[in-house]
Write a structure and sequence with these properties.
280 residues, Alpha-Beta Plaits, 21% strand, 49% helix, alpha+beta, MS_channel_1st, transmembrane, SH3 type barrels, membrane, five-stranded antiparallel beta sheet, Mechanosensitive ion channel, three-stranded antiparallel beta sheet
């Protein structure tokens, strides 16, 4: 195809034909990408769900594998699309890949952080340190894991902030979602109150909560935990299902406050005394 006629004279018809040909190729590639991406995503999710059912994987592990697989699929699909677009506009892929290898070697020393992210992410996934929907503390952040990727991990804090943490910054992980969790409530009573009577009232409430399905062990009244400046602190302890400890603690405090009020046992609270001095 010759875009010029007789030296430098511009051939408009050849240019229009070239643009149409290239434009059609690009359009077909983009349409194909738009079709393949959701189909591939759906196929991956279906395959992971089937695998999870066969091997009885947890829901968190299932979501982790789905997000990771879709992530890798998206990267691979974008790379293939870019290569095909280069080919569609007439750019030779072979020399480009060779040049990319040389350039990649040159910038490799500056991409050590990226390599570290990928290696660390691989071992986080391999050792199952965290999974989607786990409550963790990692990289200086705590919250619910939304995605574990090959480069970054996403943690949603309880105030709604979404934190993107490079995997190389995760030097240690505290996973709060493995096994049963502790529910702990401290209740203070006045020094003038009968401690044994108060403990009996609280133990009755604890026995009622032992029928709650959220509790895996207890709760039980342990006894006097400390002597404060204005109260005697009694501790109640139990073990609950994952992520249920906070709701259980709130319910325990409410029920124990109501039980102590019904028994006429005072829970001390700050008082203010105003002294008015009359000057004659």
């Amino acid at each position: 195809m010759n875009l010029f006629e007789e030296g430098l004279k511009f051939n408009l018809s050849e240019l229009v034909e070239l643009l149409i040909q290239v434009g059609l190729k690009v359009l077909v590639l983009l349409i194909g990408y738009a079709i393949v991406k959701p189909l591939g995503r759906k196929a991956i999710e279906t395959a992971i769900n089937r695998l999870s059912t066969q091997r009885k994987l947890s829901e968190g592990r299932n979501k982790t594998l789905q997000k990771l697989s879709v992530n890798i699929f998206s990267y691979a699909l974008i790379f293939i699309l870019v290569m095909m677009l280069f080919s569609a506009v007439g750019i030779e892929i072979g020399p480009l890949l060779a040049g990319a290898g040389i350039v990649g070697l040159a910038i490799g020393f500056g991409a050590q952080g990226l390599v570290s992210d990928i290696v660390t992410g691989f071992f986080i996934l391999l050792e199952r340190q965290v999974e989607v929907d786990d409550y963790v503390t990692a990289g200086g952040y705590d919250g619910i894991v939304e995605e574990v990727g090959i480069r970054t991990t996403r943690i949603r804090s309880f105030d709604g902030t979404l934190n993107f943490i490079p995997n190389r910054n995760i030097s240690g992980v505290a996973n709060h979602s493995r096994g049963n969790m502790r529910a702990l409530v401290d209740i203070g009573i006045g020094y003038d109150e009968n401690i044994d009577e108060a403990m009996a009232v609280l133990q009755k409430v604890a026995l009622d909560f032992q029928q709650d399905e959220r509790f895996k062990e207890g709760p039980d009244v342990l006894g006097v935990q400390s002597l404060g400046s204005s109260d005697v602190v009694i501790r109640i302890l139990g073990k609950t299902e994952n992520m249920e400890q906070w709701a259980v603690e709130r319910d325990l405090r409410k029920a124990m406050k109501e039980a102590l009020d019904a028994a006429g046992i005072e829970i001390p609270f700050p008082h203010q005394v105003y002294v008015h001095k009359n000057e004659e």
